[in-house]
Amino acid sequence: MLAVTTNVLARLHRTQAAATATVEAKLVLDQLERDLQGAVLRAGGGSWLDVRILSSAGALPSHGWLVQTSPPMKPAAESLLLVPEVAGGSPPAISNARFGLSGVWLRLVTPDHDSGANGSVPSAVAYQVVRRPVSTAAGAPVRYALFREKLSGASTFASVLGPLFTDTAPADLTQPDSADVIASNVVDFGVWLHARDASGRLTRLFPADRTGPLSARFPAEGAPVLADVMVRVLSEEGAALIQSIEEGRVELPPGQTPGEWWWAVVEAHSHVFTRRVEVKGGAL
After folding, report:
1. What does the pLDDT look like over 267-280, one tens digit per residue?
2. Which of 25, 112, 146, 215 minimizes the number of CB atoms within 10 Å of its CB?
3. 272 pairs with which residues across the strands?
4. For residue 34, which of 118, 97, 108 has the smallest C-alpha distance?
5. Taking the model in full, what pTM does it have?
6. Strand 104-111, strand 122-133: pairing
7. Which sequence spans correspond to the domains of the chain?
8. CA-CA distance, 284 to 280, in Å (whole number)?
9. What is the rounded CA–CA span in Å between residue 144 and residue 269?
10. Closest to 231 (Cα-Cα) out of 273, 191, 203
11. Residue 28: helix, strand or coil by DSSP?
């Protein structure tokens, strides 16, 4: 009876974790869909949609999003697989991709859907995975989370022709606080951007291949018409286990490297959600 009860409780726990991850992912994907569908791409006006991936520990302090860097974040070598290889000629799937140490740092200009009557005013928004304590209390758990930060319409217009999408961008885009969390336990987040060639076939603008390049700016590098979006959500059990691994409180199994082990645990305790979004926005 104890074995049966234990199995039932474990199955119930897994079901609840999957349901929680589904709710988190739907919130993220719905918001991303609204932002990407309205993305503004103004020719000759600088960068209006910017994607960047951090692939090495030396790049971590390049902006204010990555608050918790000690102990280190993800294993660098194993966390970069932008376009997975697929046997048999099948097309690769974004669900199997890995987007560096902190997911894609996605920044774009889109209508301010949150402002009601001012919803037609373009605003700059930014997304990225951050690893930080869940509160300011001493000993608070350290977790991965996805942040969405937004500039006001006035700040966007004041900055858009300047360093809007650089490391010296306004602090509202580079240094989010807890109020900017859009989903908890998101351990990876990425986008593929596609255009159409002269025959109407989809071609991937970003990333070009398995290794990069790791950044791109639009419309200077093309005009994306579709975006594939991916979020990987850890269960609470998985998030606690990953924290224990990163803090050295769990012994490395024999025969595995630390990076292989980290990702094996993540894949065993997470769910991946994807969506294809049409990029509908045009010039101002």
Report:
1. 999 999 999 999 98
2. 215
3. 232
4. 108
5. 0.86
6. antiparallel
7. 2-278
8. 13
9. 14
10. 273
11. helix
